[in-house]
């Protein structure tokens, strides 16, 4: 099958390469010429396990190509997918400008029968609007009467960054919003080779399913963070509580890790987006208001914990491990680590940071005076405290003897409870996590 993918961000790139690996011929189109130029020479623009290898394999097989020019590749495409960004606007509602501009680009150039597939996360009603826009542009091009049949499918993406390639080939479900059997059959064919329940439903249900899924995961995170805050006040240990709760099959163990809250390019915008969407449809989604409030408060509390532990931050040297919004990715969008670094820096502290993958992306958004260390151990040299802000597993394997020797004061504030079972208090550290009952 010939597939065109609009947008070569994490989602467009991973799914584009995934469909190529399934045997399709995929053309990835992006308006960002520098991104396309890098991809074209085999340079992976996103850090994801196995993604670089997949890129090289598909380039060698001649099943993937990259271009900025949609008109070069749209001829013969049976499927045109939209995987462009849907960020939040300042008001909190979803900015659909990239989606509609992609729909316009398609409508101006498409002159044969095809299915337009929306992979991006979009509010209810957007898929229908995309199809209308494609038709409107076709009419403008004088192809009103003779317009070929264009149908639409909503194919929301559920991949988790850090394990995106694995999630593409082994998804827990494939949600297909469609209106007709022929389109549904084509989407089925496109996924041949992937074993997963396929749920077909209306466009509106597929659109809402994606928001509901992210909102519920975010709710779990805020819920366990509330429990952690009670644990801190009562002497309970949130890790034991989460284990006990999570073994209940009705609840499940995932997303019950207490910490500094959820970040990233999806949860914050999707939770706020759903909240707004509910509001504009006349419904006050009270639960989500609390989820958002708890998430914002959680980082404040961590920041206060650091301030209380160290006193005045002015002139203190603070080391930070972790810049990405979570381990396994180089994505720093809406990363709570970045927010906390900016707060600590604004209080007059000297900040030196390390992340295994996200340094390049973070450098673009952090103040110039923030220093970047070549290794985790280098980062702590001469530090008054270490903040652990991203759950990179390799932080657990660092020599804590070397860390202690390098620090002026062996203090660790662990915003992810990543090191909480390493008994660092017994190795001479003052160690504080989130919801561990008592400082240890
Ligand atoms: P992104 O913003 O990182 O990438 C989007 C890309 O689209 C950019 O490279 C941009 O230059 C390009 N683009 C914009 N307009 C274009 C146009 N008209 N033609 C061609 N390219 C265009 O986005 P992302 O993180 O890959 O996410 C894409 C969508 O998938 C979003 O709706 C997001 O909410 C959703 N989603 C993301 C994830 C994730 O883990 N990142 C997971 C599931 C769903």
Describe this structure in words.
A 6-stranded parallel beta sheet has the order 3-2-1-4-5-6, sandwiched between helices. It has 440 residues and is an alpha/beta fold. It is globular and about 75 Å long. The mean pLDDT is 96. The protein has 2 domains: 2-201, NAD(P)-binding Rossmann-like Domain (Rossmann fold), CATH 3.40.50.720; 203-440, NAD(P)-binding Rossmann-like Domain (Rossmann fold). The chain has helices at 10-21, 33-40, 51-61, 70-73, 97-109, 126-140, 164-169, 181-190, 203-234, 238-246, 267-280, 286-310, 336-346, 359-363, 376-380, 400-406; strands spanning 2-6, 25-29, 64-67, 79-82, 114-118, 150-154, 174-177, 198-201, 317-321, 350-354, 371-372, 385-388, 411-414, 430-432. The structure holds nicotinamide-adenine-dinucleotide. Residues 6-12, 29-32, 35, 83-86, 98, 101-102, 105, 120-121, 157, 159, 161, 265-266 line the site of nicotinamide-adenine-dinucleotide.
